[in-house]
Amino acid sequence: MRIIAAVVLSLFLVCAGAFAQQKNDEATLKALEEKWDAANLKGDGAAMGTILADTFITTNSDGKTRTKAEVLAQLKSGEMKYQTSKVEDMKVYLYGDAAIVNGRWKGKFTDKGKQFEINERFTDTYIRQSGQWRCVASHGSTIK
To answer: What is the reported pTM?
Structure first.
């Protein structure tokens, strides 16, 4: 009887630990999305650089792609300036050391002097590298 109780307790502790890790990962990924918004608003390329993996690629609703280097260069140049940037309705799906974050993003910004206001659904793909979550891909589709 003691062996069964010990096994059940051990399984419970393992499951509880896994559940706690999952909740922690979800919170971390949501915080990274919010950090991404803050970096956009501040034009903070250094903060953005810590979120994006070196192999990062983004695809916009027109099918155009940009690399991490292109995103950071555009942010640092000041040719793109954000007035608002806000993620909402986020859902996190975890797959071991990979994760998908899906949500809605609303933003107002100028790009090379032209004003834009966008409402889109996004999907960001993250992987855990050396214990840190990094975004490897992003896609946005405009909500009409």
So the answer is: 0.82
